[in-house]
Amino acid sequence: MVCNMETDLIEDMDIEGLPSMWPEDIGSDKQFNVERPGGGQDMLEEVTIPEDQTIVDFKRLLELTNYTDKGSSQMAYLVKHWEYRQSNAVRLLREELDNLSRQRQESELKKLEILEEHRFEEEGYGGDKRPISIMDELSDMWKDVCPRKNDVVFQSKRVEVDAEYDTVEYWKQRALDLEKMLEASGQREQALMEKLNESVTNLEKQSSPVEELSQILKRADNFLHFVLQNAPVVMGHQDILGKTDVEIFSGAGVKESQDFKREVLEKGLPAKREITFETELFGSKTFLIYVEPVFSKSGETIGVNYMGMDVTDQVRKREKMAKLREEIAVQKAKETELNKTIHITEETMRAKQMLATMSHEIRSPLTGVVSMAEILSNTKLDWEQRQLLGVMISSGDLVLQLINDILDLSKVESGVMKLEAAKFRPREVVKHVLQTAAASLQKILMLEGDIADDVPIEVIGDVLRIRQILTNLISNAIKFTPEGKVGIKLYVVPEPPFAKEGLKQKSKAYQSATDAVKEEKHQPKSQTASDQNGFHDKKHGEGYQDHKHDDDPGTPVSHGNSMDEDLEATVWIRCDVYDTGIGIPENALPTLFRKYMQVSADHARKYGGTGLGLAICKQLVELMGGRLTVTSKVHCGSTFTFILPYQVSPIEENSDDPDDLSDMADQDSVTDDVTAGFFQFQPRTLGSLFSSNGTSRSKKLLPNSIGFGSAHKVNGFSETSYSFPSNNRQKETAPLEDACSVAEVAETLSEPESSFSHSPEPENETEVSRGKQCHVETTSWFQNPATESTSHSEANREMIQTSKTNEPQKICEMQEKPDRISQSPSSSSAEVPETKPKPKPKILLVEDNKINVMVAKSMMKQLGHSIDVVNNGVEAVHAVQCQNYDLILMDVCMPVMDGLKATRLIRSFEDTGNWDAAAEAGIEQAMPSSGSSNHFKRIPIIAMTANALSESAEECFANGMDSFVSKPVTFQKLKECLEQYFP
Amino acid sequence: MEVGQMQRRLLEYTKSLFMEGVLDNQFLQLQQLQDESNPDFVAEVVSLFFADSERLLNDLTRALDQPTIDFKMVDSHVHQLKGSSSSIGAERIKNACVAFRNFCEEQNIEGCMSCLQQVKQEYCLVKNKLETLFRMEQQIVAAGGSIPMMELSF
């Protein structure tokens, strides 16, 4: 029993005795660095424990246990435990005693019973009514209470007697039996007595708590020894016995753990912490340190319980886990991001697709709207309608342009755009682009084209796209060039460094179309080389005597030379589009080719445009395997350069097959000098109708016959202006005799204000002035140049028709001749300053306020102008009907008719050639005969506004006024304004 | 009085007119337009202005006296007056006219009436001042001196 208790106790004490020493969350033994011995192995086998240590010094023990709270609680626990044991033992003993005494009573009762039975039997066996022995019942009871009693042999045996009842034999036997039973009972009593004694001694043995306590302590001691024995992994246990932790540990982490202990000591609260120690044997080890403060009875902290556990692996695992978790998080974030990007990309693609589709869908109806509007603009309209229509058309054109740009861009971006390969003549393309640009030129700009001789006559490429690029760049250049020149320069360059990739790209792009070109290649070409050479040689003189491509010594590039040998040689042609414009600031260069980018918002406002042009150009150039670059200097101009590769077809003979010229449908180009390398387009130059190039084409470009007709109608007025056509004629013919192919275009014929300067043939004019039938003459005049096209003569005929109807007016105009000379705007004289002195402009002042009139008149006088004055809008219209003015100063706010309306009426007249609008407004024509033919030029009208707010200015512009002067008019303002119109 | 002194007085007087806001730079413009070929230009313009203004003021007074006021007409008269006064540089009249036109737009009869009174006052002021100015100029000329020009910048 003692032995049992002991083994029980070991386990009890391990956990119950030191419950608070380990942190609660350390549950499993695995966490300890202690190797659990295998089953069956005696834990203490190896431990040699000197037995003499079991002596307990009670005094010391008390001292120890009273020293700390922990100790006293331990002590209290031990005492409690002992008391429990004690009471348990007492209870058992008492039970035993009870048991024994009961048995004794029983046996006595039995004895009595037996005796009574005997007596009863003797009396007559009546007592057999209670056959069940008390002992039996008791023993049954005891079975439940104390199973230990089982080992006590205690049987109640019915005494069996074989002998016949009531014989002597029977009684004898019975007496014997009873004797035996008594004896057994006596023996049992004996045994019980022995057991009692045993228990008593046992009780005595257990009764010492000190003994028990010392046993527990011994076990704890043993356990500690065992732990140390099993902990040689960190240090030998001999090394630590009798040493303090500071002495034992060294290296990193020690200080931290010391600090931690101190911290706990100060705070008085238990805490855990992970501390990494640098151990000599095992390197870095992380321990989970649990430190618990130990309090004295008085509540002071007197020390700590310190426990460490190696959690290196766990920490490592934990760190790994954290890392993994982190990685997973990152992965997840990335995934989300990716998904988002994919989503956005998809959205963008869809949006782009949608935009393209929409643009396409919008384009068709818009084209309808714009073209219908254009047709409408050719019908008879009043001034207001015309103005509205003008806005409509220009807006429509802008939208159309924007949509086309967007479509182009999306095509290029999505790779849908296919390039076509067709033969074309670069010279003609350049010329054509310049002519087109010149036709709509509204500034005094020189347009130049200069193509080097080494540029092949024909190359293969996507002429439409190249033209698109050139047109775009040229129109940009013109837009941003207020004066000076704009030009295109073409020359062959060696293969640029980016060529390789570019070539690949290009060949891919062109692949589809090359076959078709090959077929064309060998078609007969009838144009003779000498035809072209004629002009060219003369023009370039000694410098370019031999211009033929195949043997041109000046051709430096092998590509160019190898044209004859190779069927498909590549030539790189560099194209510079230069201008003398406002230039591009350096900081704007990087974003220049981006979509919807313009140099600045100011520029966008001032110059308009979609901001897509350059982006498209760049993309197109790159699609064709080239590069588009720009160099620029602010205020000096910009040069856009693109280098493109072209296939060159062998030119045994020059082709003039019109089918070959994909972009040149005109028949007259046949007679053009195909090798002409230099073109110049000057606006408002004279005698252009005689130039060898571009005459008829420019005519075809004229927007409508009205502008054209008007230009010629005014031809009739002046004999003095006679001199400038002839002057110019000479000037023109001189280079023509040199066979210089200077191409001058009559593009400005369509512009009203330039019409004065376009005084052509003298005969023509005199014919008209004489009022004769001039049909024959004019026709013959137009037949003068060799390049006469049918469309041209048609235009002439139309013109002649109008001039015929206007004959009376022309005569009348002749009478006003001197006036008209002086009226010629200085803009025309600026063109040909040598021909005549600056005329005095005729100025009309429309002002109702007498004082203002007086002041303005006086100011104008000081400025050297005399002015006509009228007092209201109606009078102004009358004045304009009767006289030709070069400038009108118009008060806005006037009685009878305000300046805005008067301006509208005058503009309407200028546009339509009649005063119908004025008539509708109730103004009778003052001089009925002098109306429609007088002038179709646009008279500059300057508003004079009392309040110079922007709104009012806009209103002025909207009504057709050109600028405004705010009132009160000052000398300076007036001077500036006049300088603007009469420089 | 000595010519030089008279000239100085004229200049000071002119300057005071500018300071008081009776005249503005536009008046200098007029003075600049006056030269040998047109020696009385300023006087001519100003007298024309007086005549015109008096007519306009009469018209205005009459128009505002009507039982139903034709504000459009009133406005056009005021516009006229404003135009001419700004042309000769009579700044205070011009400013009064601006207020007048605002009331006109609101069809505020009382405002218009008070503005008319103000314009009349301003007109009288300008007229008196300018007449004084011209008298001084005439005195200088009579004394054989030349009329000094105001500096443009002050």
TrEMBL record, chain A:
It comes from the Eukaryota. Keywords: Kinase, Transferase. This is Histidine kinase 5.
From TrEMBL, chain B:
It is found in: Cytoplasm, Cytosol; Nucleus. The keyword Transferase does not apply. One of its GO terms (molecular function) is protein histidine kinase binding. GO terms for biological process: cytokinin-activated signaling pathway; phosphorelay signal transduction system. SUPFAM superfamilies: Histidine-containing phosphotransfer domain, HPT domain. The keyword Phosphoprotein applies. Keywords: Acetylation, Cytokinin signaling pathway, Cytoplasm, Nucleus, Phosphoprotein, Two-component regulatory system. One of its GO terms (cellular component) is nucleus. Functions as a two-component phosphorelay mediators between cytokinin sensor histidine kinases and response regulators (B-type ARRs). Plays an important role in propagating cytokinin signal transduction. This is Histidine-containing phosphotransfer protein.
